[in-house]
Amino acid sequence: MNSIPAPLPRAAKPHSRLRWPGSRTWLAAGQWLVTLLLCAFLIVPVVMSIVAGLTVNYFKGVSSGLTLRWLGEVWTQYHGSVFLSLEVAAATLLITLVTGVPAGYVLARSKTRLSRIIEEFLVLPIALPGLASALALLVVYGGFTMFRMSVAFIVVGHVVFTLPFMVRAVAAVCASSDLRTLEEGAASLGASFFQRFTTIVLPNARPGIVAGALAVLTLSIGEFNLTWMLHTPDTKTLPVGLADTYASLRIEIGSAYTILFFIMTMPLLVAMQWLGVDATGQRSAARKRIAVLPSSSTTTP
What we know:
Elements: H1 23-54, H2 69-109, H3 113-127, H4 130-141, H5 145-148, H6 151-176, H7 179-188, H8 193-204, H9 206-222, H10 225-230, H11 238-248, H12 251-274, H13 282-299
Helix pairs in contact: 1-12, 2-6, 2-9, 2-12, 3-6, 6-9, 7-8, 9-12, 11-12
């Protein structure tokens, strides 16, 4: 009789083992957690302030309804401060462009110890509190009544505070690019200094100029400490008016004033990110190296 073959034993399936996340995974998760918590810590108060400026009654919350009434009241009472802040920022930007771009170029070209000392003196207003710089301006120029009561006095204070940002941004770009070789080549072809400056220096320094300009505008519009000490009742800028609304009016009006402030400053910050401002030129140099690598790899045997 034929014997029934015994069934073949099934191959043992390997048991899948759950791998415990490695140290790198835990480190990355911790970094993400800290980043998200920090973002929440910074963004949640801003969102709550915006919501407060759009609610009918802050203490009742969103359930009381949404309204643009407080924004209308802020614009009616403080639209003069908005236009004054824009005028001061525009004047500050113009002066820093005329003085800061040549200064940054000269400091980048000069390698003497005197230029480094001058650069440190230019950066000094950033290290000092705004109130200290304002007090120094009051001590020196406060006796000139007409100048003290004018908007030009605030513009001078803003120039003192923002000029280092323009100078450092332009100097960083001019130092990273090989302007000396380009200028020497143009000079050998008979180009004057003005021609070299307008056709070589300014185009190559454009990233630093854009970075400095955006920094000057945002800092001038948002500067409070120095402006608070220099302003008069007729020269009240946007940040000073914001402080007044929080101190003397309803919290809804103060929050609506904050919304107005965001409407003015956020486009500048977005523009800075959208333009990919790189004052040091490191990102553009990295892109050039990446673009060169494929072409060089194809030529090599």
